[in-house]
Amino acid sequence: MSVTEPAATPGKAKDEPLLRVEELEVSFATEDGLVQAVDGVSFELKPGEVLAIVGESGSGKSVTAMTLMGLTRSPNARFGGGAHYQGTELIGASEEELRRVRGAEIAMVFQDPMTSLNPVHRIGDQIMEQIQEHEALPDQQARERTIELLERVGIPRARDRIDNYPFEFSGGMRQRVMIALALSCDPSILIADEPTTALDVTIQAQILHRIRELREETGAAVILVTHDLGVVADIADRIAVMYAGRIIEEGSLDQIFYDPQHPYTWGLLGSITRVDRARPERLPAIKGLPPSLANRPQGCHFRPRCPHEFSKCIEVPPLEARVKDQPDHRDRCWLSVDEKRERREVRPGEIGLPTKDEPEEAPAA
Amino acid sequence: MFRFTVRRLLNMIFVLWAVSVLTFLIFMVMPGGGDEQAALRIAGRNANEAQVQTVKREWGLDDPFYAQYADMMKKVFTGELISYVNQVNVREEIVRGIPRTASLVIGAGIIWLFFGVVFGVLSAIYAGRFTDRALNVLALIGISLPVFWVGLVLLYYLTDRIALFPPGGYTELGDDPVDWAYHLILPWFALSILFIGFYSRVLRSNVLDISNEDYVRTARAKGLSERRILIRHTLRNALIPIVTLFGLDFGAALGGGAILTESIFGLQGVGQYASDSIGRLDLPPIMGVVLYGAFFIVLLNAIVDILYAYLDPRIRLQ
């Protein structure tokens, strides 16, 4: 397999999902009781698609991503549901089966590039180690491929830098190394878990730009886990918004940004700063705190913070398509679509979350 | 590397000098020490006042203390240091003791490093389970048992009650390797037991700490086998502190620190020589042994630093 050739999915149609996650459940037994980190998460990932999983800290987005690779397995973790990747059931897979998928089929870029590389090994060795784990390649060829990969992610003088140690790189450069590592076996899915959170803003933009370019070159599907809607707007095709372990809304980039259905999504969108508008005194924030995963509210998890709560909300709203003619736009809110559109005061890309007791002031134009 | 070597050498010379001065001063001021007492010891129990005066003059013991110190240092370098008590040459005694001490300490060092690492890794792999708990209990027992007690119990049961091993003594390795090992098995065991317990506990916690590092998760995400993750990623980092520990403990024991083990098993090594000389307040051998010991500790320290720079590329020698 050459690294420049797009990863094809043999014998499958283009819109056949590469990955199908169904009713995924992850819980951890802790001293404070059972923590339900992921609660019935379902989504599909098509070849070449960028799916962003968005949510606050503790919403279960990272756990979802890591569970796909079996990285959350531990004696006190319990799993339910499934994740099918091209004939492999990832959740119940043996370590042996998972090892063949990890790195080769599904690769991951982690949040903190400063700690994600082993400090005592040269970066080239760390990349070659993965290549040679999955492909019987002689050292010289693995090394050449590594140099090529480092060049592709934008590391200057890759031929010299391949023998450097991680501490000789800056954070942004290390994240590029991580991306090169992840792409080294031409995976069909790249999971990026907050890949830019630990980096400063200019570097963030470069890294995102790289990920987008590489996606176009390799055809790999990307799952981008982030809390940053600005990042999402840059590169995502589809967005899944998570709250307290559940996906509460899922749709295309435009659907989520221009026709958001769930009050939590409204709140998230309302808290984005915009450089093209007058700056508000304070950024609007969603009142209250996310619930503890060990002790979640009954029914809709957002209910205690939601200004639009009503009697029905005590029941768990199913994740289903509610907007007419948009079967791929799903959400978990009992309000009718008309009520939602009326209450959220739609202006394209500028959506606040009015509260019950203090109605939102008219935004400065 | 050159600058590092020069700096370490200067450092070493300074430490040895400071150690020699301290040893000398402590002897001069301590009860039972000082040049008067030394002269009495040289002259012997039945000497009269005139004989003591002669000894003082001949041995330079009525010189000012700094002159005495200079004289002693000169003798250290020329190898003319002679015991006050039995007039035996100190260097010859130390040279006679080195192969004995080295046989004990190198053998024990290999044993304690090997079992310390094996038990530590097993404990970490089976953390919280039976193997870990059992090893934990054993390690605590090993750490708590005093060497002299273990030595005596071993001697009593395995040489006296059942004549399984020789009751101490030493055979040259060159003369009879089997008998050499036969004589050393019990001392090796007695000296290792504390270190095995200690090293396995330290390594266990290091391995568990490193297992939680992000880069170990990265290694797992790469699809590596658990064995490769353990060896190349976890242990490779977890063993770095063990290198320090081993360097210091090994240097101290080689420098005559295994006093109890050597004495109990009558190995007549450097440690036992140190212990005998201290018991007799015999300054020249004490000085000789202390400098010999300090030399090894400082040397091993420098070796540890060099190894460190090799094991952890973030550390540079300068």
* Rg of Cα set of chain B: 24 Å
Taking all Cα atoms into account, the compactness measure Rg of chain A is 21 Å
Total beta strand runs of chain B:
0
Number of E-type strands of chain A = 12
Q: Whole-number average pLDDT of chain B?
A: 89
Q: Distance between the terminal alpha carbons of chain B, to the nearest Å?
A: 7 Å
Low-confidence stretches of chain B: none
Query: Number of helix segments of chain A?
Result: 11
What can you tell me about this protein's structure?
Chain A contains 11 helices and 12 strands. Chain A has 365 residues and is of the alpha/beta class. In chain A, helix 6 runs parallel beside helix 7 (201-218). Residues 1-12, 346-352 and 354-365 of chain A have low confidence and may be disordered. Chain B is built from 14 helices and no strands.
List keywords for this structure.
heterodimer, A: 365 residues, alpha/beta, 8-stranded mixed beta sheet, 4-stranded antiparallel beta sheet, 11 helices, 12 strands, disordered N terminus, disordered C terminus, B: 318 residues, mainly alpha, 14 helices
Characterize this entry briefly:
The complex is a heterodimer of chains A (365) and B (318). Chain A is α/β, with parallel strands linked by helices and 365 residues long. Chain A is built from eleven helices and twelve strands.
Topology diagram in text:
The complex is a heterodimer of chains A (365) and B (318).
Chain A: E1 19-30, E2 33-45, E3 50-54, H1 61-68, E4 77-85, E5 88-89, H2 95-101, E6 106-109, H3 123-134, H4 139-152, H5 158-161, H6 171-183, E7 189-193, H7 201-218, E8 221-226, H8 229-235, E9 238-243, E10 246-252, H9 253-258, H10 263-270, E11 320-321, E12 330-331, H11 337-343
Parallel strand pairs in A: 3-8, 3-9, 6-7, 7-8
Antiparallel strand pairs in A: 1-2, 1-4, 4-5, 9-10, 10-12, 11-12
Helix pairs in contact in A: 3-4, 4-6, 6-7
Chain B: H1 2-29, H2 34-43, H3 49-58, H4 65-78, H5 90-125, H6 130-144, H7 147-161, H8 177-211, H9 214-221, H10 226-238, H11 240-257, H12 259-264, H13 270-279, H14 283-311
Helix pairs in contact in B: 1-14, 2-3, 5-6, 5-8, 5-11, 6-8, 7-8, 8-10, 9-10, 11-13, 11-14, 13-14
